[in-house]
Amino acid sequence: MSTMPPEVSAILLDIEGTTTAITFVKNVLFPYVEENVQDYLLLHWDEEECQEDIRQLRKQAEEDAELDGFVPIPPDSEKGAEDVDSVVQAVVNNVHWQMSQDRKTTALKQLQGHMWREAYSTGHVKGDVYRDVVPAIREWRKAGKKVYIYSSGSVEAQKLLFGHSVQGNLLDLFDGYFDTTIGHKVESESYRRIAENIGCSPENILFLTDVTKEAKAAEEAGVHVAMVVRPGNAPLTDDEKLQYSLIMSFSDLSLLPLL
């Protein structure tokens, strides 16, 4: 059991390995994109959003021309169905290559986000959320705490996950969302910016994460940290176990000092 510091008024939550199984993105979301990207592009080819996704991927491909394994995307000459098929196949190959390299380019994230939006809205995918998360957040909110999400995934992707979760629409549990547009999670300045955005001091924030580099950055900014230990998360060293407060479940986080 870990006690929440009394000065904490806002709780900042990571997603992967914290609210959601770390395997969800790798085993559900990523395979969905890899298996369905060709059908998605053909179905939405004539839509401006899809064409913008392809333009961004083509622009990224031009920047990647010097990388090993680079997959080019030819221009769309609008000659006919055969040309469409060749461009689609090139985009599919490029997306598969980027994902095999675990790249996180804005162009790739944009297409993935649009595909996941469709997957969630049609019910093909539901957001994974640990059972202990919702009851705990409701208790925190009853106690007057505000709750925010901070993830490397886009704000849109965050809202899709919690808006179409296995436990229903959970968007009313959160007071706001942050992604890497405010800064990377391993940079302490990001947490200072979040505190400023929320309208509080860093010491008024408790950050829950499973990543020690993120925990270190948050602590350097003056934010309180608790490490979340879930099945499948990266193991902590003995020193890390001593350095941080550890919780196995959100229910391990007590609002009141233990007597």
TrEMBL record:
One of its GO terms (molecular function) is magnesium ion binding. It holds the Pfam family Hydrolase. Signal peptide: none annotated. Mg(2+) binds at D14, E16, D210. InterPro entries: Enolase-ppase_E1, ENOPH1_eukaryotes, HAD-like_sf, HAD-SF_hydro_IA, HAD_sf. It is an enzyme of class 3 (hydrolase). Its EC number is 3.1.3.77. Its main location: cytoplasm. It is found in: Cytoplasm; Nucleus. SUPFAM superfamilies: HAD-like (SSF56784). One of its GO terms (biological process) is L-methionine salvage from methylthioadenosine. One of its GO terms (cellular component) is cytoplasm. Its cofactor is Mg(2+). Keywords: Amino-acid biosynthesis, Cytoplasm, Hydrolase, Magnesium, Metal-binding, Methionine biosynthesis, Nucleus. PANTHER family: ENOLASE-PHOSPHATASE E1. Belongs to the HAD-like hydrolase superfamily. MasA/MtnC family. This is Enolase-phosphatase E1. The gene is ENOPH1.
